[in-house]
Amino acid sequence: MERIHPEDLPPQFGDHPYPPQFPPMLDDLSVLCEIIYYLFIICMCLVIYFKTKEIYELTGHSGLHYFRYFFIFFALSSAFRLVSFATLFNFSLKTLNDAIFLDKICIFAMLYFGTIAFISLALSVLARNHDIDGRSRLIADAVLYSGSAIIVLPILVMRMEIILMAILAVFFAAVMICDLIREYRSNNRIITRNRITNLLLFIFWILNVQFYAKGLLPREWFLPLMLVSAIIFLSIFLRLNKIYRPDRKYRSETANGAKEERL
Amino acid sequence: MSAERNRSKHQIIYDILIIIRKNNNRMRYTPLLRQTNISSSNFARYYKELLEKEFVTEVVEDKTKKTVYLAEKGLRYIDKYKTFMEILREFDL
């Protein structure tokens, strides 16, 4: 068997030359809950993404484009968190270095895709009433992918996730303020269901990142926060499902509904 | 003119497709342009997009007369348009 030097072990395992154990906060129940949570989130995100696929393909609407991006990239982010768990479960002395390397890759992917997801959510808000088409959409997408990598990579290398949280918080707050000013000028509505949902989704993701970064909140808070976060995703799914219900009566006051009758 | 400004691109595309559908899924280019109530330059832009997205097909007769046919994808667009608008309204997109 290969001899592993203590300095090769991750810091939380100290100098013990034994097979590493889960840290105390990662007991069986919380790991199971977290796995169920991520599986649920992945399912919800994929269902929402594929449910809107046909309409997006027909319309190519830019707001819908970034709205769908949020779900697919959040699903990817959650999937890499699950893979990260799998590396913990498959820990053995023989593959310790591989496992640590794989875990780092997974954490990078989780933060990278999560960052893309939340910037996409912000773009879906900014793209309201503005068509981002053709070349400008390609440029926006390229900036989205490369910008997220530029933000996440150095932060992960330096292990300063708090900076990532701060950058995203400032960006998201700026987008929310722009949106509020724009909407207030047009129809005086400040608090809407979607703004609250977007804000909560963002807060829960930031909290999720800080749990990974072992930051401010105690680990016991994770379970209730997961529960609320799952309820938000479920509510989005139910709202979408309501629209797709075959017996749904469409509101007839839309300008085009009336127009269709006239034409 | 103001009505044209207030309609979104998707609404205008929907209106054009509805006009063709009401005319038994086929129509000459010029009457279509007249009925859509938008400028000819704007109509040309939307018409190009309709052709590119394969919502309509065109057949040129006698080298000049264009007949526009509603394609299967165009019918699907009409079918899904209300759901699309509901999604935009529900999620503030």
What is the overall number of helices of chain B? 5
Total number of beta strands of chain B: 3
Distance between the termini of chain B: 25 Å
Q: What is the CA–CA distance across the termini of chain A?
A: 80 Å
Care to describe what's here?
- The complex is a heterodimer of chains A (about 260) and B (about 90).
- Chain A is about 75% helix and about 0% strand.
- Chain A has about 260 residues and is mainly alpha-helical.
- Chain A has one domain: Rhodopsin 7-helix transmembrane proteins (Rhopdopsin 7-helix transmembrane proteins, Up-down Bundle), CATH 1.20.1070.10.
- Chain A is globular, with a radius of gyration of 21 Å.
- Residues about 15-20 and about 250-263 of chain A have low confidence and may be disordered.
- Chain B starts with a helix and ends with a helix.
- Chain B is built from five helices and three strands.
Using brief descriptors, characterize the structure shown.
heterodimer; A: 263 residues; mainly alpha; Rhopdopsin 7-helix transmembrane proteins; globular; B: 93 residues; alpha+beta; three-stranded antiparallel β-sheet; 5 helices; 16% strand; disordered N terminus
List the helices and strands and how they pair.
The complex is a heterodimer of chains A (263) and B (93).
Chain A: H1 28-51, H2 53-59, H3 62-89, H4 96-126, H5 134-157, H6 161-187, H7 193-212, H8 222-244, H9 255-262
Helix pairs in contact in A: 1-3, 1-8, 3-4, 4-5, 4-6, 4-7, 5-6, 6-7, 7-8
Chain B: H1 2-6, H2 9-22, E1 26-28, H3 29-36, H4 40-52, E2 56-61, E3 65-70, H5 72-90
Antiparallel strand pairs in B: 1-3, 2-3
Helix pairs in contact in B: 2-5
